[in-house]
Automatic annotation (TrEMBL):
Residues 19-169 form the Phosphoribosyltransferase domain. The keyword Flavoprotein does not apply. It is an enzyme of class 2 (transferase). One of its GO terms (molecular function) is glycosyltransferase activity. CDD domains: PRTases_typeI (cd06223). Keywords: Glycosyltransferase, Transferase. InterPro entries: HGPRT, PRTase-like, PRTase_dom. This is Hypoxanthine-guanine phosphoribosyltransferase. Pfam families: Pribosyltran. It comes from Marinobacter albus. Its EC number is 2.4.2.8. It catalyses: GMP + diphosphate = guanine + 5-phospho-alpha-D-ribose 1-diphosphate; IMP + diphosphate = hypoxanthine + 5-phospho-alpha-D-ribose 1-diphosphate.
Length: 185
């Protein structure tokens, strides 16, 4: 076993499970119902925010009960760290957003810098309306704008460094089937 794999196995052994798989699945079902109620007649263009939004988007998409056009973009600011830095666009969307309702789907609203920047980008490129959906809203008072919220939130989770269901710790454990907090963080 490599040192990294051993370290990551230990991270999981020592982690606290904050939300189990069944609870996450229930939250995703609620998100899907709320989004369907709000957007079924809006012909929205959905953007998955890679990489973290991958798992939520995949699970959400099949539960949305209307025709959805889905694309992706990639913006990142944490890389292998547990605190965020400057936002780097790795892949900007090239879909035509003019006059469209946009739904941005991501794993977590932490400080909110990422979602605000993506929403600004969409509005600047002609979006009529930009809505955001996240699996997790981390509870703290360091939001990019006071009181910042997503339009659709699956779960509110305490202020720890999280992994699982799309969220990574040092690039690993996005695949963890629940929401976990790293020991000591
Ligand atoms: O609300 P914020 O404080 O801006 O943080 C949230 C963002 O951070 C994570 O992405 P990350 O930068 O780790 O990129 P990745 O998903 O490609 O790993 C996460 O997937 C969100 O996009
Ligand atoms: O707590 C977190 N975990 C993983 N990725 C993140 N990106 C922002 N906050 C987090």
């Amino acid at each position: 076993m490599t040192d990294t794999v051993a370290e990551m196995n230990q991270v999981m052994e020592e982690a606290d499970c904050l939300v189990n798989e069944q609870q996450v699945q229930a939250a995703i079902r609620n998100l899907a119902d709320d989004i369907t109620d709000r957007l079924r007649d809006s012909n929205p263009l959905l953007f998955c925010v890679m990489n973290g939004g991958l798992i939520l988007t995949g699970q959400l998409l099949t539960q949305l009960k209307f025709p959805v056009q889905a694309e992706y973009l990639h913006a990142t600011r944490y890389r292998q760290e547990t605190t965020g830095g400057i936002l780097e666009w790795k892949l900007r969307p090239d879909a035509d957003m003019n006059g469209r309702t946009i739904l941005i789907v991501d794993d977590i609203l932490d400080e909110g810098t990422t979602l605000c920047a993506i929403a600004d980008y969409c509005r600047a490129h002609g979006a009529k309306e930009v809505l955001t959906a996240v699996l997790v809203d981390k509870q703290h008072d360091r939001k990019a704008q006071p009181g910042l919220k997503a339009d659709f939130t699956g779960l509110e989770v305490e202020d720890r460094f999280l992994f699982g269901f799309g969220m990574d710790y040092k690039g690993y454990w996005r695949n963890a089937p629940g929401i976990y907090a790293v020991k000591g963080l």
